[in-house]
Amino acid sequence: MSDIYESAANSLGLFSSPCLTKVELRLTCKGISDRDALSKPDPCIVLNMQSHGQWMEVDRTEVIRSCVNPTYSKVFTLDFYFEEVQRLRFELYDINSSHNGLKEADFLGSVECTLAQIISQRKLSKALLRPGGTVGKAIITITAEELTGNDDYVELSFSARKLDDKDFFSKSDPFLEIYRLNDDATLQLVYRTETVMNNLNPVWKTFKVSLNSLCSGDHERKLQCTVWDWDSNGKHDYIGEFEATFKEMRGAIDGRQVQWPCINPKYKVKKKNYKNSGIVILNQCKIIKMHSFLDYIMGGCQIQFTVAIDFTASNGDPRNSCSLHYIHPYRPNEYLKALVAVGEICQDYDSDKMFPAFGFGARIPPDYKVSHDFAVNFNEENPECAGIQGVVEAYQACLPKLQLYGPTNIAPIIQKVAHTASQEVHTKEAMQYFILLILTDGVITDMADTREAIVQASHLPMSVIIVGIGNADFSDMQMLDGDDGILRSPKGEPVLRDIVQFVPFRNFKHASPAALAKSVLAEVPNQVVDYYNSKGIKPKVPSEYQSSRPFGP
Questions:
Q1: Is 241 strand, coil or helix?
Q2: CATH for 10-147?
Q3: Is the confidence at residue 393, as pLDDT, over 90?
Q4: pLDDT band at 4, cuts 50/70/90?
Q5: Per-residue pLDDT tens for 150-181?
Q6: Rounded CA gap, 326 and 337, in Å?
Q7: Domain positions in the chain
Q8: What distance in Å separates the CA atoms of residue 358 and residue 375, rounded to the nearest whole number?
Q9: pTM for this structure?
Q10: CATH topology of domain 153-288
Q11: Which end of the chain is more exposed for a tag (fewer CB within 10 A), N or C?
Q12: Which residues form the C2 domain (predicted)?
């Protein structure tokens, strides 16, 4: 086995300790108080996990309109580590009807527990702690299920025709719910489609669920599928239902349609010539094989690591010991600590160990014009440095030659790496994935351009890690997570996938370099897998890779 495989396997422990298992969490809530007499709440639950003393948002459920007892379709998938205390906080919000963001939402309270508590009890119910610490009437119930064996996903596309009309002045507004029949005869919500308004022949959006969620890997397990007519007051009208199995659904794999009559049992008994309340059609069933991060690495995927360093004037004069860029003979500054902590992990996944290093926000020789994407080694033709040590040396050598200036613009460097990553897209192979590490001491000044650059980059094989250096107020940087949990460009285009991770270095000032690296790189394996799986790009098997492309020494 080549050296890169050994070093990758050895340092994978710093990406994350060995994951014992993956766990799916499902949420229901009962007894949410009405905001006022005129309207019911529009509840959404946000899942936070504690990391190094900080609560970080992991994911959030959909918003269910006008509902005091919501059952959420959204499934949270978490890695469970036996040796770690994984603290979770579930925050309940009443979302403003006109706006899905949390800024204008009412915070109703939260529940805290550990992942181990949920797993050991399988189903954990806790009363909501309201703001101020009083116990509320609402109960959140979290159900855990281990993902075992088959982690494939299935993609399903449903439509219907000639559904019953339940509305007087318009047509029905149908949505479909799929429930799995558990071994104890209880029903578990697997998926709820969106509502198609005013349409008796709806075509619902294609969706993806794990085979484990759908049928626990049992292709004969009964699935109860119910069609409802949506009402804004939350009292949805029942249209009908049908039973199916995944074995039946697989009939749509070859592009053939599978159909079920949608039956209302009451009508069947009462109406003499009753046939059905419509036909539900499965137009497509596609099984998606899920590959792991190691599958791609072992198949020869290289992590191309690029670093960008902030040389704006707010860092302070590098000759002054108070400067964030001050080079102490014995103690590395925060820029160097962050660079080495993250770079030393990434270099194990890159065979040539040559890393492009750029600077931004400085006036550079010979004409001292401001640049936002200059090579730290001043070689624009070849900005690569030999190893992380080479990046460190280039950084130290360039400092005396620069005039620190401004502003803090990072869009140009994101676009530069994105341009290189876009060339990789055409290969349609999992050979190069790009990680851009941006080290900056302040809030960025080109936020609109940066959001646009990140949205475009989310279509490419790349991730962006931003580490905030120093003691600035980085709260505006949370904009990069978007107002409603999704980052959007100034025109409103959402990111295709989450590719940005931001952490302030000060949170890790007294922690080991491994703790910083683990925090900022923890998402990378999933981002790599999500990108290639979404494109349907399979990893090469190691033998294919080794015969097609030799490693350097």
A1: strand
A2: 2.60.40.150
A3: yes
A4: very low
A5: 568 899 999 999 999 887 788 899 999 999 99
A6: 13
A7: 10-147, 153-288, 293-355+408-461+471-535
A8: 4
A9: 0.66
A10: Immunoglobulin-like (2.60.40)
A11: C
A12: 1-128, 134-261
